[in-house]
## 1
Amino acid sequence: MIDLVTSGALAGLSLDPSTLPQQLVNGLLIGAIYALIALGYTMVYGVLRLINFAHGEVFMLGAYAALFVSYGFGYTADAGDIAGGTWTLLAIMLLVSMISCAIVGAVIEFFAYRPMRNQTRIAALITAIGVSLLIQYGGQLFLPAQPPPSISEKVLPADIRGSYDFNLISPDPQLESDLAAAKTAADAADSELEKMLTDTGQREFDLEPEHPLRAAKFETIGEVRSLSAEIENSSVSVTVPRGQAVMFGTVVLLMTLLWWLVMHTRTGRAMRAASHDFDSASLMGINVNRVVTITFIIGSALAGAGAMMNATFLRTPLTPFFGFMPGVKAFVAAVLGGIGNIPGAVLGGFVMGLAETLVVWAGYGQYKDAVAFVILIVILLFRPGGLLGSSKVEKV
Amino acid sequence: MANTAEQETQATLDESATPILELADATIKFGGLTAVDSVSFTLNKGDLFGLIGPNGAGKTTVFNIITGVYKPTSGDILFNGRNIAGLKPEKVAQLGICRTFQNIRLFGSLSVLENVVVGGFLRKKTGLFSALALLPPAVNETTELRKKAMDLLEVMDLADVAQSRAADLPYGKQRRLEIARAMATGPDLILLDEPAAGMNPQEKEALATTVRRIRDDFDKTVLLIEHDMRFVMNLCERIVVLDHGVEISAGTPDIVRNDPKVIEAYLGEESE
Amino acid sequence: MNPAVEIQKPSLLKFWGSRVISAIAAIAFCAGIQSLGGPLADNEFLYRIIVLSGLYVTLAVSLNLINGITGQFSIGHAAFYQVGAYTAGYLTVRMFSTQQIGEVPWLILMCLVGAAAAAITGLIVGLPSLRLKGDYLAIVTLGFGEIIRIIAINIDEVGGAYGLSIVPKIQSPWLIWALAILCIAVCRNLLKTAHGLPFLAVREDEVASSAMGVSTTKIKVTAFVIGSSFAGAAGALLAHYEAFITPDMFKMEVSFIVLTMVVIGGTGSITGSTVAALALFLLPEWLRGLKEANGDALVVSAPQLLGATLAIIAYIALARRVRDHYHGKPIQKAGFQFGVAAASLVLFFLFKAVFAQIGGLAGHEGWEINSLRMAIFAAVLIVIMLLRPQGVFGHHEFSWAWLKSLFVKKKQEAS
Amino acid sequence: MKFRNTISVLSCAATAALFLGATLGCGDKTTSNGTNGGNGGGNGDAPVAVNRPAPLGEGNSVATGDDVIKIGLIASQNGNLRPWGVDSVDGAMLAVKQINDAGGIDGKQIKLVVGDSNSKPEEGKNAAEKLVSEGVIGLIGEVSSGITAQLADVAKERGVPLVAVGATKPDITTKGSNIFRVCYTDDLQGPVMAVFAFRDLGLTKVAIVTDVKQPYSTGLSETFRTKFEALGGEIVDVQNYETGSTAFNGQIANLKAKNPQGLFLSGYFNEVGPFVYQARDQGIGKEVYVFGGDGWDSAEILNSGGDAILGGYFCNHYNENDDRPEVASFLAAWKAEHGGVPGTTMGALGYDATALMIDAIGRAAELNSASVTEALEATVDFKGVSGDITLLDQNGNPPKRAIVVELTNDGQSFTKAYEASEIIGE
């Protein structure tokens, strides 16, 4: 065991340039989710100077809401093969998830955070931690956690299962046609073996490996493997599952929507004012309570959207605790970008996603979570305000 | 209301004066904004010096560069002949400059007495270990510091509230407490940032007496920022006027009062 | 108002007398803890909990020095605990058998080593605090704790994820409590002398402190070093008491719980930290005892318990809002007060019904006791914060005079 | 100012009223349900029959007399190992019920006391100490190696025999002479999968995926690697992740570049399912086999792995389609008692461990822990559901058979069984 980890870590140090494009795309995809959650942290912090520790839990609840919707349509985990899901269902799941998160966010704000508004920040933080724990463990009491459910792939419409392949360096077309032929041969050998087994009532693994039919199967599948290895080695390609492409598009759309809302509407102006100076904003006749509620609603709804897509397209297993780590990472992303700064949160989210995947790329998968904090500490030490934030000089 | 007698004293002092603080072309820029633009003036030992100017003139910034809160972009600040520009605030305080703040900065949840003890702590002699183990030297020193602090509170007429929370004091007393706390550090030079702000005329009168006592009885040099022209003109012997970070006038109250630049800068405010 | 205070030198007799009495009391207490093992031999679980609560007292009081007294926002205390535990544990595994030292002296030595290792770590973490403030410092300390934990998982020398078994097991209940008492004494001594005031001053106002000649950097780093060294020593004791440590024992939750103890007790109050540490360590353990009760009772009571706590939270929030709205007219306020109480009662029944429904829908046959106990813990946390955000003890310390004043005040109210 | 006080007094009163209401309501219900348990603080000294299917597994209480023999079971009734913990409790209860229905041992009933380890080693240790201090004659548990290692320390220290249910890490039984297990070790499991992959699947280039946070996973990866390389295969890549990870795109892209013919995933089902799903999503085709150890054993893997995981192989302790007679009778008894079939293999192992312990108690010369330990040590050919168990001169590790199963839409289909001698002999 000792040898494995040490040697594994060393053997893993492989900076394979051919996988880099794929890894960068992976980083952007996961980063998009972090960015979406980070927006909620950053908006709340911007207005209230409060670390909403329960944000990760709101995210978790959003995923469950989406799960219940899919259950409502009969797409439970153990449902048999049913006709492909529909785009409408996905849209409903997204909406329900966003709405229920918005409600939860507003409720938490009203009951737990509003009374703490004039208290010390540490007291507010403890309350937030309390809310987070309450939702986690309360969730374990009331949410179906055994077995930990995840959203069935059956909700995905048939036309977005599968993936987009982009060839940066294309393989020899000859190889591809060879591969197709080899696959057909392998399938034929396999079905021949199957047929023999059903006819004789034997089990495959009771046969000797040298049995002619098994040998044929090994040979044909070996051909498939060597051909696909050859293709893989001679080409550089990026695979994006279609679902994740849809997810990325939705995230970008939501971010644009948020940007428009913040920059071009009355509410957005009020939010910016409150974020700039909470007390003056209230003196200027802005209903700050309303602004805070709206901030929570928007932030939570974004987390809800992220949760639904995370659970559906990235196929994250759901447990009442699964919001914690993405929550922490998104928070780090928000700090990284300069907390309170909306473009900063997006940037931070992407940086976070990229950093994480690059560490895995280098073969240190076990340090994936640690790298978030290392980057954070380094950045904060050299740029205390975050990447896009400004560290305010205290007025004396 | 110039007091000729005082002016004479001033003049004689100037002859034999030893400079205690010299600002030489002190400049500070925040980004593109030049908050203080080559300000130079000299304080002599025993001076009662005023620094005035309209809002945003950069008075407090001058204080901040003297006390090390900000590092001046260029220029020197000599204290007793030593350049203190860019030293840390605590270092400056240890050298003997102490200040009060425009927006009162007391240690709110500590008692009045404790606030003053913090000031006096600067001159402590015992080590931390002695305190952690509660050894007699630390205990005795604590008693001594508290006694000294109590004496100071008597002087500042705060002895009766020694055990109250500092934040619970009325405004005027808080201002006095800040001065007491600054005095406790045993400074040679004391900087007062708008000590009379928010006080009524009686309180201001009492304050002026106290400030004079600080100078005369305790032998300190005083530099103060004030908004209230009448207060400054009555109290200070020399005055520097800043506007938009630039020194526009300097001299005795009479000179300053009649300087057209000052009148222009204060247009609308002089009637105060 | 308060009369002018006479500052007197404490009489020599009183000074040394009280110290001797405290020392005797402390020794008696430690001896009591040690000998409690006899009568509690049948109930080792209880004894174990009593002993281990001493470690949490140390952790909470030492974190209080950083967070409460010096006002820094450190939420990664488990990191120091872990560093102490691993350093001491590793050294014991490696070196104990080759040394001719008795077990208890060795343990004391290991405490010092653990404390030193944690102090160095504290210095490293304390240094960023020169540049960072508030939430930023908090998130850095949190991240630092996670980094240390993940590194420990990946170092096979110390057992990796599997954990480190420590041979020999050296259990010394009296030492655990002696450390707790030492920690309390050190913090209290600090606050009793003038040396403690700069720490408080840094908490109150950093700018003003430095203007008063207080080296804020030095004070903050000192607080970090002292606080973390106590946590390190506690870690060393934990490692030898359990004879086994895993990185998972030092997760973020541990830091959160210790932080919670400090805040609930009242930031800055040593008494508060001590009491809260005992309460919050023993409360979940007591709730663990719920398991003993009949399962059916719990099925029924879980929605009610949760419903009740949520209703209380709702009640407090609503009451606050009403109070903010109608400052002034007592009658109006009283009326609304009852209205709110009634609304909360309705909410309680609503919550109860909803939870029972959800529980039924989710097909839970019973309630997971561990989740229930943590949910109740969390709810209590929120309720306390809403009711007393400054913590149960606020900035107060226990003293006979304080106790007396409480008593006298009550009398006055009664008359 | 004064009114503030009134307000807070009122608040307190109303709060108290709410609390009272809650607790009173709770009290009412309990009495109407006819149970005698107090709410919350009750000491729970009311004995609860063990054969009652208690969801919480409670039933531990102080000894009430000499007519019961108490054995302790540690299981994760909460946390990520819960599916296994619950099954092991159900299995153990079944074994206890069978012996009690048959009249007990020498007229004494067996009483199962369950402690919750909450999927954490230190809590498992606490629970074990608690059970021992309540006077159990022997301990059973846990399903995870990390937790069992702690139980072993307690058992060794207190001289109570321990029968591990599903802990496969080899060095656990070396902690003391009174530590036994009913499952095979990773020394068998890893090589079995290596032999299966090399010989039966015909793979020569395999990549290993390890959960570095699980000692079980790191250990299994190592034994697999050693055997596979000894057979002449090549390990082309090693990727790591941590328990609780949810996104594996990075690791998968690395693996894909190495073109392995198969992936050995030594982790637990919580992560393996999503890993395989995402791997297939990222274009690792069906011709790349996936296989792993008994950590895969849960119905949940079919859910989180979706169609992607179908056709994966893993090593298990028993299978419903195995032709041993014990399996059929066990399944029948399970169906009668709990309904359905056990969700995981831990139902059978929990049953085996408990039955073995009971068997040893029956054979023991005296009714104390030392005698039971001796009896356990002398076990020869105990007919367990998961195979024959012999502990005599085996250092606590029974030579067992290992079963390779394939994941299909209906669950696990029996693929091939290996006897320990086949593998170790090679």
Note: The longest strand of chain C covers residues 164-165.
## 2
Amino acid sequence: MTAVLETIGLERRFGGLIATSNVALRLERGARHALIGPNGAGKTTLVNLLTGVLAPSAGRILLDGVDITTLRQDRRVRRGLVRTFQINQLFGDFTPLTTVGLAVSRRLGLDTQVWRRLGSRKAVVDGCVEVLERFGLLDVMNTKVATLPYGRQRLLEIATAIACGPRVLLLDEPAAGVPEAEREGILAGVAALPADVTVLLIEHDMDLVFRFAQRISVLVNGAILTEGTPSEIAADHRVRAVYLGSDHG
Amino acid sequence: MRAAAQAALADLGRWRWPEVAFWVAAWGSWLLLPEQHLLLNEVAILGLFALSLDLVLGFAGIISLGHAAFFGCGAYVAGILARLGWGDPVLGLLAAGLVAMGLGFVTSFLVLRGSDLTRLMVTLSVSLVLFEVANRMAWLTGGADGLQGMVVGPVLGWFAFDIFGSVAYAYSLVVLFGLFLVARRVMHSPFGLSVRAVKGNALRTAAIGIPVNGRLVAIYTMAAGYAGVAGGLLAQTTQFVSLDVIAFHRSADVMLTLVLGGVGYLYGGLIGALVFKWAQSWLSDLTPEYWQFWIGLVFVALVVIGRERVFGWPAAVLRRIAR
Amino acid sequence: MLTILFDGIAYGMILFVLAVGLSVTLGLMNVVNLAHGAFAMAGGYVGVVLVNRLGVPYLAALPLAAVAAALIGVVLERTLYVHVYGKSHLDQVLFTIGLVFMASSAVSWALGSQQVFIELPGFLRQRFEVFGVSMGAYRLLVIGVCGALAVGLQVLLSRTRFGSRLRAAVDDPVVARGLGIEVGRIFLLTFALGSGLAGLGGALGAEILGLDPNFPLKFMVYFLIVVTVGGASSIFGPFLAALLLGVADVAGKYYLPAAGAFVIYSVMLVVLILRPQGLFAPRSGR
Amino acid sequence: MIRRSFMAALLAVPFVASAQAQQTVKIGLIVPMTGQSQSTGKQIDAAVRLYLQQHGDTVAGKKIEVVLRDDGGVADTTKRVAQELIVRDKVSVLAGFGLTPLAMATAPLAAQAKVPMVVMAAATSIITAQNPFIVRTSQVLPQPAAAMAQWAVENGIKSAVTLVTDYGPGIDAETWFAKRMKEGGAEVLASLRMPLASPDFAPFLQRAADAKPQAMFVFVPSGQGAAVARQFAERGLDKSGIRLIATGDVTDDDQLNGMGDVMLGVVNAGHYSAAHDSAVNKAFVGAFKAANPGMRPNFMAVAGYDGMHAIYQALVKTKGDTDGAALVEAMKGLSWESPRGPMMIDPQTRDVVHNLYIRKVERVDSELYNVEFATIPMMKDPAKP
């Protein structure tokens, strides 16, 4: 099996501060991989490096063996590297339908069409319905996003990413701030992802991580401390030591 | 559900009766208000100009206080062509739009970054620099005295501009309507949606694979073309171009016009132009010295009381009647 | 040529005092107050009435002009501006331009539309030769007053309780309220300060700039240049920007009279492209 | 061609019916009442109202109605307002025109509609050549410029620097001052042009002073003169042996009082002074001040006043006929005693012919005035053959 997403010696400095230090990650096709670490370990910085929001100070990023280190954000998405945000990034004026519709149009390469209406292609409509249905958003598809309850917005955040047709999906704390009752919907949506989609879950919530992940990497002070199966990680005394000081001790 | 989704998507670009009524009224005004053709011609031109600003400000979220750069560019192109003997209005307008688009494309790269204030000042500086250029190149533009000697031919070789402004208004209205239809169509396309998305959240837009800067460049260029055509219309229908077309007050006026009518729904500029020009003309007939005071009062009241509450009550009344 | 430099500094200083209030309202209170020039005009006309009609001594009229403009600021802040703090920038533009239109018309109605000046006392019309540089007493006064104001403002904002409270109120009004800071009052005082400075600038600068009903619109662009080039979050930035603008404008006109205002606008464009946050803004974190 | 005129006729049909049978003669007065040049508009408007008040609103059996419109000094507005006045208000005469571009924008329209255009402010020489319906009662910039140069040469000024605002009238002034100086054997050391919107004049004045001329010749539009003159004095140039000479625009009567004592002694050339010593002028100034407290008539006001006089006299000559060509024909060669002194409408060029006075700013009865001390009688526009 070849790696779908791979980083080699990835490094990012802010002035004298090293936020990401020599990170080597390797995700196989269809992997369910989790990245954990205490607050301030540099998880979000790493996601920003992977998605092209930030440029690395050193190192390389490979997607399907192709170097994408200098590729623009949107180009990476077109190659199938899609993310969600820890804090919802949505279009408040849109409806879930138009939000997903735009993402589906982009996936189908129709986003530069200036003359045809958004809904004039059957494929777009079908794509929208499919994604909205999977996340249970059909009943609110014509509601203004800004007025949706938070849990629904969180679902839309993920649904939008799915609508982009990811081959590698970076989920940045998908359950953050979601009330217990609405959490199941999110987990179900994530679990229902096609098996060939590679998922990197960045998460705080250990329950979620251990239910979901096949492999786990632990990030501490910007560097990978260790990597292994959930049981290996659970048994690792260094990981315990790191988390002892924090809320999961 | 699939049908419902399709219907909802199809509904996005559907003509609604107030829109139809608006355009019926616009065309009706040509027949019914012959005495107002000159003013209405200015309304149509300002409306097109404000529509152009709406594409940039209302849809893409780029605040511009220098939009007159493109308006003036178009006006000078149309004017200079007419002076050099290329007096065909349609070709002149086309040239005005294209040159303004070129200018828009080149300068669009300056407004990709920065806060509202920075963009405001960058666009303003561009227009001020162009103002100075037009002023310096007096051999071409006529400088501060204005461009003289334009000879504008009849529209399509048939309709000569008359002193009543009837041909002028019809011509401007046709151009406005045509370009409005294009803008409407484009703004309801996936491309248009992606431009709105950039304004809504640039971070997310990039995260679904849409090149943010590319979209901004594209819409800015298109809007510049619209402004250029508006400028060309003004030059052709008044058969005169002066530095006013590119002056700061022109940029400020169009911004006020658009904000008055409301941004981001295509009609704001048109309604704003109608209200602004009509109020200005009416008040300045009543009190040529102090009309600005009353216009100012309207602006202040509109914001302090709230636009929704001022414009909202006719809509509310209509709703009640309909019920 | 040092005389040109001297003139440019005086001109820049005037621009600073006129624009610094805008920098405060824009940078600290996030209100696009395009009517700022109207407060300067108000101060200027108060000076005209006091000195030319009522015979008040020039130096006494300056603080009175500032106080008058500040009072107008207070009244307008309480009655009108409070309603637009939460509105969009575009609404604020519409609102403040409306105020400018009203102010211009009102002045034209009450005091006529011809350009007026404040009569300078004799001692300010003298000239000195210092080390071969020819300097006017009036411009020396301008430099002195404005320089002192710049220092005073910097101290006020960085060293006093008022300054720290203002910064707290701007950073997070909710938290500031929780800490017992009266945000409304802080904003009111800040607004009054900004208007008062504009009023002083209007009275002090009338000799160079002239006063007419069109004043707020005529100088709006200059104020905006000072604020954007200087960065709208400190005193020092706009101060340097104003000096730079003043000297560049005067020197540009002297050495390249044919280029006119071209130099200024081009320089500003380049600055804004290279440093979108302003020339003297601290580099952003990260 | 046939089909075009057919279309035009078709479009024109609805408007023709009401154009007949007027007992009222409407005069469309278009001036800037707002914006940068608003003082020009206010002076002209006040003078026009004064004329109506003094001479009644009836002439040659017709009732005169003046329709005042503001154009804010913006050319396309001027043109549109003029067009509306012609089409909707059916005015017989257009008047006003505060700035050169405003007059230029309207000129083709007036020719097309055959409506006389009485220019009461704009002062670039070329305006009256734009069409045969333009008559001017203000001034032509080459007049004061040439007069000033003539006086300078005669009074031993051998070198000068010109300092003018960079637009049509300014360039006219620069050209004709320099021309007459050279003809008189004097030298123009430098010709500086200032942008129309120029808040600080100091650098231009400094540069002019550094050329060390005997005199500095200044033209700026009405309204900006005070700033230049004050800064001239503030720089100590008045004491450095450089004479400030100017066109009358700089020592505008409207503002002169507010400029202060620094203006005392400035020599300038102009066609009108509120202190002109004649019975006609005394009556005019007195009535003007009475009707407009706080204002003093300047050269803009007198141009408005004379413009109305030309229109009235033309109507008398045509016996109330408002045909444009007839009115213009009647205005040609008109001459009368204006508050400025004798004046005439040149029958060939339709431009103003009047005395040019060399004046000096002096204090008279606690007010500053331009006091005339030399006269160049009945000067035509030197720029026209």
Note: Chain C has a mean pLDDT of 84.
